[in-house]
Specification:
about 325 residues, about 15% strand, seven-stranded mixed barrel, 6 helices, alpha/beta
């Protein structure tokens, strides 16, 4: 009986040891009878990732984290992962670390780089090491949220300092002024609408006039072109040349006439000098004509003589027989 009890106790102990061993192996992700490969990824930080955490592709577990260690220079973290050999990785693969649940468990998810191109992945000079990026955990998010809350508090204090009751009144008055200016602008635009319509009408008329002028110019060009083709333009040029030669002859004649006119002017000047001298003699009473002009008695005699001659002519017209006697034999 005692020997049987010892055997049972020993079996239980061996079974417990086996369960602990196989449980540990299972938790580490080691598999019996399946082939696995090891891949590596580089990260700037890994958050709460631990050995044994799941490695997933498109949400499906494909392996476990084998080890987590710092680089020799301490600039990055190298994570070794054991995954199934028959798993086909996406093109240009990257590894993203993120929380697996709200209880603090983390996981490594393999994605194509095009899925999250905005992340700043930790690149490695070794092409066999995949680039990695670690999402912030709850503690980092809480710290960031706390910093944002502090910034918001400072901003709120500054807003309260800047926007006092007087500032609110000023803003209200500014809005009212803007509204008043907007109404003035609306009325101004309405009053200028008629002028704009008139300008548009004038522009339309001007455009039509320009069109007519363009047609006239085209017709003129056509006529000129026809004249050139018919030889009329050459004839016009010949006429212009003949007119130019005639104009040269006329110019020469005018020059000769101008010289003759100068001699006439000089003779007229001499004549005017003589007339001036004669006028001076008349004013002085020199000569017969001068005495006639200056002697008033002689002028009166001439007037009386003129009257007598006129009376004689009247009498001659009235009584011609008195002066002419005609006898016929």
């Amino acid at each position: 009986m005692k020997q049987r009890t010892e055997i049972v106790v020993g079996a239980v102990i061996l079974l417990s040891i086996a369960l602990v061993f196989f449980g540990t192996v299972w938790l580490k992700g080691s598999g019996f009878g399946r082939e696995e490969i090891t891949i590596q990824a580089r990260f700037r930080e890994v958050g709460r990732l631990l050995e044994g955490n799941a490695v997933k592709l498109r949400g499906v577990p494909i392996g476990r984290v084998a080890s987590v260690g710092l680089e020799p220079d301490g600039e990055g973290v190298i994570v070794r992962m054991r995954i199934k050999r028959d798993v086909a990785l996406p093109p240009d693969p990257v590894v993203v670390l993120m929380p697996e649940s709200l209880f603090g468990d983390w996981q490594a998810e393999i994605y194509p780089r095009s899925r999250f191109p905005q992340y700043r992945y930790a690149e490695s000079p070794d092409p066999q090491v995949l680039p990695g990026y670690s999402l912030p955990d709850m503690s980092q998010l809480t710290a960031v949220a706390d910093e944002i809350a502090q910034n918001l508090a400072v901003l709120t204090d500054r807003v309260e300092i800047a926007f006092t009751e007087e500032t609110a009144h000023n803003v209200r008055r500014a809005i009212e002024n803007i509204q008043e200016v907007s109404e003035h602008l609306t009325r101004l635009v309405g009053s200028q609408q008629r002028a704009i319509d008139e300008v548009a009408t004038n522009l339309e008329r001007t455009t039509e006039a320009l069109g007519v002028a363009a047609e006239t110019v085209q017709r003129t060009f056509a006529q000129v072109e026809a004249a050139v083709a018919d030889g009329e333009l050459a004839q016009i040029v010949d006429n212009v040349e003949r007119a130019s030669s005639q104009l040269d002859s006329l110019t020469k004649a005018l020059l000769l006439a101008s010289e003759e006119f100068r001699s006439v002017v000089s003779r007229a000047d001499t004549t005017m000098q003589s007339v001036g001298a004669l006028a001076v003699q008349l004013q002085r009473g020199e000569g017969s004509l001068g005495r006639l002009v200056q002697d008033t008695l002689l002028y009166a005699d001439l007037v009386r003589t003129n009257l007598l001659v006129q009376e004689l002519l009247k009498d001659f017209k009235a009584n011609p027989r008195k002066y002419i006697k005609l006898e016929i034999f």
